[in-house]
Design brief:
Chain lengths: ~325, ~260, ~450
């Protein structure tokens, strides 16, 4: 009898046959079950204990923790330490602890603050536009071209996210160029002249490029979301004679909410990393119109070699992202 | 309504197609024609293609494939059991779930500095191993996160039944649960591959020379002596066409996989 | 021949077995690979047959690198026992890799190219091998053949850390035909430039393509305006001298020109866009790298049908911004003799002549005045003008943290052109920030 030994979480000891047949799965009798499993009693526990004791689940989890610990947690802590030093990769002998100096310096750094604001504007706008466009596209796609044609169309519309962002940046740098680009050449006869990379519009042009590349991602998740919706509410709405708009507002949207939240969350977190478009097109200009945090970290750390300060810049970003996602995570998690 | 939908989709098709057509045309243009945006009619030249093929872009394709495949393989091997433990056995509790989400959001800028220094100290600089390790930092969390969702979506009754039927926990996992989430794993693998395939930031800093990946090769057409637009266009096409084909083949599965519960936080 | 030490020995043994046997007997000082102390080998100019080694060279992927790669076969005729591997990559990648190679006990590279803003930091950090004695020991090397501004960049605290590879000094590239038709001569002062550009700004063609992109690019262009206005970037003591009436006038002129004669909406342009605008008859001229001239005049190049119509003049005012690439040897290299063998061979008058004829950008005065080069290369005018440009030029920043110094000035300048700062504010900010960066703050 191994199954019931010292396990208060199992309301009923598992059938002897089960544990006898698989003794190897239960090889750590010395461990007490964690408080976690005590609190979170899985539904099926009354019949069969789905949550095993420490052994196997930790064997399952260990590789993940080890890998993430090695490539994420450890570098993260190292980076945190670097952010409190003035580490410069080509002046390592002068490295010393500077405490919070670098963090305080950032508050007074106008370019950095501009980059912070730009990044937030970029993320907010880009994600919102991509969400609306992606949702509209997903809904529209459901209504056109049944069968094979739709498949082809769908895969074509998804492709922009498969193009490496640096190529997208360089592509649009020349496509949107006033003198040399195709888009202004087409717009000009129509009497439209747009200064795509001037002070007022540069950030929005960068956002537009992001929208071109990443709306497909929203489309992908929302298509998946729409496909996973149960058919009954829609049938009911139809029977009740609800209009398209009414059905969308009162059935589709509420049902799709978790998907929208997830899509926006993933995309938003990714959008904080915007680097390539700025690098390829504006280098942060004109003035500080397109400065973004990721580009600044790159410039400070790898062009100017001040890796300590670059780490501090990056950590401010981490804290901001955390402040933004914790409430979101809570809200979505509650559902 | 149908008409509006068709019109809207049509318009977006044009928006998506436009840059592609431009790139396709550019890959067959001479330097002079590339400068003139109105050069719609031109005699196509294969010079750009010849140059790019001769430049050893094949090696970059191979590097990118190696990095992508290794990254998603390691990720899948590590993420599948890990995600199962988190989803089904509540291993690590909320902390684990949030930790996964958190590692997904870390800007590469935070990690690249230490990774760079580690690679340097371990003598892994300039190796694909360094790039693979760096790609794991963002591919592994995303894949794990998706898979936690997939496992959450598998009805518990299936497993209970499997246990009653005399499978062990591992047996139940392998024989009953895994087949359920296979399409989802496929979706996650493809998604992870695309993320790795596109990365420039890490690949630029951690490897180069003979080990450079496709994005690095594409970026290398942007030189101090100007942007080699024609050749870059060829390189872009070379990098897009495989994923385009893959996307056509797998997109249905991709959508289905994600729709099966991968959309939970 | 120095005997390579431990780690490197294994590599050498594995890769160049024959070379090792020929060099093994020579008595010469051994050096630990990490010590940045200068290694003076008495036989740096030893006859080719006795030099052996296996060197890895990092270079940028540009046409100049292709020219050098094509010369390797000839080099191996002279030095059969030196194996050279060229590792070509993009600019941004190259810098990171050079630095990481400095930091490892077993360096990746034995020979590197150094961009002029990096020279001071790399040399003062002890990462580069001083080359004075090697230069002196190399017969017929004629180091004075390089223009003084080129030599100054490579000299840090009185020692030479690099020899010039190719230049990117700036000049005015203009359309001969347009100048002739309008009866104009190349401008020699800032006001002339304004007059000429305004006159040529007609119809569908703008008077001057500019490169006001934030950071490096705008400073590289505007610096020429500053010199033309009589200003300077740093004074004799290397203190920042940007806060001057001359600088204000230069910036005001730059902004006026951008608004009146530059292509519309070109605030993010770098030299690439400018080149395309000039090459496609959309702008009459530009201030750009002098070697853009042969590029534009090449049939089938970016100049298209206009090839042959372009000419080069020194920038207005005569004094130009100078950039250049240098060959250097990392101090942690274990293959210094072999690396110097390649550098000294490649940059010798004889081989440099071949390099320039093959299309490489010139650096040696004697090469630029060689009628043989004129005939086989791009003509007398080009080389004589290039020599003039190099002789009267200065880099953007001299001293520590040059890369960042340049960028902070360029940021302020671009903000002024974008209208976010007034001319006065921008100049003050540029001067203050550059001084702060130079001071290492």
């Amino acid at each position: 009898m191994i199954g019931g030994r010292g396990d208060p979480t199992a309301g009923v000891p598992p059938p002897p046959s089960w544990s006898n047949r698989h003794p190897c799965h239960d090889h750590d009798p010395g461990h007490a079950p964690s408080g976690e499993s005590r609190r979170r009693q899985p539904r099926g526990a009354s019949v069969i204990r789905l949550v095993p004791r420490l052994g196997i689940r930790h064997v399952f989890l260990a590789p993940l923790l080890i890998v993430l610990g090695g490539i994420v947690a450890y570098p993260l802590l190292y980076s945190l330490w670097l952010s409190f030093t003035n580490f410069n990769i080509i002046k390592q002998d002068q490295t010393r602890l500077v405490g919070l100096d670098q963090y305080l310096g950032l508050a007074a750094n106008e370019t950095y603050v501009a980059g912070l604001v730009n990044t937030l504007v970029f993320v907010g706008l880009a994600v919102a536009i991509e969400l609306v466009l992606g949702l509209a596209l997903a809904l529209a796609l459901q209504r056109v071209l049944p069968g094979r044609g739709r498949n082809a169309l769908r895969s074509f519309l998804l492709t922009p996210m498969f193009v490496t962002p640096i190529a997208v940046g360089l592509m649009f740098r020349f496509l949107l160029n006033q003198q040399l680009g195709l888009i202004p050449a087409i717009l000009e006869p129509l009497g439209v002249r747009i200064d795509f990379f001037g002070t007022q519009l540069a950030l929005f042009s960068i956002i537009a490029i992001d929208v071109w590349q990443w709306t497909p991602f929203m489309l992908l998740l929302l298509l998946a979301g729409l496909e996973s919706l149960p058919p009954q509410p829609f049938e009911a709405a139809k029977v009740d004679g609800a209009g398209t708009w009414f059905t969308f507002r009162n059935v589709t949207l509420p049902l799709l909410r978790p998907v929208i939240a997830v899509a926006a969350l993933i995309r938003g977190l990714d959008a904080f990393k915007v680097f390539e478009y700025v690098f390829a097109i504006t280098r942060g200009g004109p003035g500080s119109a397109t400065e973004t945090l990721q580009y600044q970290v790159y410039r400070t750390g790898f062009s100017f070699f001040r890796l300590g300060e670059a780490a501090a810049m990056a950590f401010v970003l981490v804290v901001i992202v955390l402040l933004l996602i914790v409430p979101l995570y809570r809200r979505v998690g509650d559902r | 309504m149908r008409k509006i939908a068709a019109l809207f989709v049509g318009a977006w098709v044009v928006v998506v197609a436009f840059p592609y057509l431009w790139v396709l045309a550019a890959s067959f243009k001479t330097q002079k024609e590339l400068i003139d945006p109105r050069s719609f009619l031109f005699v196509p030249t294969l010079d750009n293609w010849r140059e790019v093929v001769a430049s050893g872009i094949g090696d970059s394709v191979v590097s990118s494939v190696i990095v992508g495949v290794a990254t998603v393989t390691i990720s899948a091997l590590v993420a599948v059991p890990g995600a199962y433990a988190i989803a089904r056995w509540r291993a690590g509790g909320e902390v684990a779930r949030f930790g996964i989400l958190l590692s997904e959001v870390l800007p590469p800028a935070v990690l690249v500095v230490p990774l760079f220094l580690f690679a340097l100290n371990l003598g892994l600089r300039d190796t694909l191993a360094a790039v693979i390790a760096s790609h794991l930092t963002f591919v592994l969390p995303v894949m794990t996160w998706f898979m936690v969702g997939f496992f959450d979506g598998v009805p518990r009754e299936l497993e209970e039944q499997a246990l009653v039927d005399g499978h062990g926990r591992i047996g139940a996992f392998v024989k009953v649960v895994l087949p359920q989430v296979l399409p989802g794993i496929g979706a996650a693998v493809i998604f992870g591959f695309v993320l790795s395939w596109n990365d420039l930031f890490y690949a630029l800093i951690l490897a180069g020379g003979n080990e450079r990946t496709l994005p690095v090769a594409i970026a290398s057409y942007n030189t101090f002596r100007g942007v080699e637009l024609g050749q870059m266009a060829v390189a872009i096409l070379i990098s897009v066409v495989p994923v385009l084909i893959a996307s056509f083949v797998v997109q249905k599965r991709l959508i289905r996989g994600i729709s099966r519960g991968g959309l939970k936080v | 021949m120095r005997t390579p030490t431990f780690g490197a020995m294994a590599v050498v043994v594995a890769l160049v077995t024959t070379a090792c046997s020929s060099g093994a007997g020579s008595p010469s000082p051994t050096q630990a690979p990490v010590t940045p102390a200068p290694g003076q080998s008495a036989d740096a100019s030893a006859p080719p047959a006795t030099i052996s080694g296996d060197i890895k060279v990092i270079m940028e992927q540009v046409p100049d690198t292709d020219v050098v790669a094509a010369m390797l076969a000839d080099f191996n005729k002279a030095y059969p026992d030196v194996k050279v591997t060229i590792d070509g990559m993009t600019y941004d990648q190259m810098r990171d890799r050079i630095v990481s190679s400095f930091l490892t006990p077993q360096p990746t590279y034995d020979m590197i190219i150094v961009d002029n803003p990096w020279m001071y930091d790399f040399a003062s950090g002890g990462f580069l091998e001083p080359l004075d004695e090697r230069i002196a020991a190399t017969e017929g090397y004629a180091y004075d053949d390089y223009a003084a501004p080129l030599r100054d960049i490579a000299t840090v605290d009185g020692k030479i850390y690099g020899v010039p590879f190719y230049n990117y000094g700036l000049g005015l590239i203009y359309r001969k035909d347009l100048y002739q038709a309008a009866g104009l001569l190349p401008p020699t002062a800032l006001d002339d430039l304004v007059a000429v550009a305004t006159k040529l700004n007609t119809g569908g063609r703008t008077g001057l393509a500019m490169q006001p992109q934030k950071g490096y690019k705008i400073f590289e262009e505007w610096g020429n305006y500053l010199f033309a206005a009589g200003g300077s970037i740093q004074d004799a003591d290397n203190k920042v001298a940007l806060d001057s009436p001359e600088a204000r006038r230069a910036l005001q002129t730059y902004i006026d020109l951008y608004k009146s004669v530059a292509p519309a909406n070109s605030l993010n342009w770098a030299f690439d866009e400018a080149l395309r605008a000039v090459g496609s008859d959309q702008a009459a001229q530009m201030i750009s790298y002098n070697w853009m001239l042969p590029t534009l005049n090449k049939p089938g190049g970016p100049g298209g049908d206009l090839a042959g119509q372009f000419a080069l003049a020194p920038v207005p005012g005569g004094k130009a911004i100078l950039g250049a690439w240098y060959w250097s040897i990392p101090s942690n290299s274990t293959q210094k003799d072999a690396a110097w063998a390649f550098i000294s061979w490649l940059t010798s008058k004889e081989q440099d002549t071949q390099r320039v004829i093959a299309g490489g950008a010139p650096v040696r005065e004697s090469v630029m005045t060689d009628p043989n080069v004129w005939a086989k290369g791009f003509g007398q005018d080009y080389y004589e003008t290039a020599a003039k440009i190099l002789a009267n030029s200065a880099p953007l920043a001299d001293g520590p943290n040059a890369e960042e110094s340049i960028n902070v000035v360029g940021d302020a300048l671009n903000a002024a052109v974008a209208g976010q700062l007034s001319v006065d504010e921008a100049i003050k900010q540029a001067a203050t920030n550059m001084q702060a960066v130079l001071d290492g703050q």
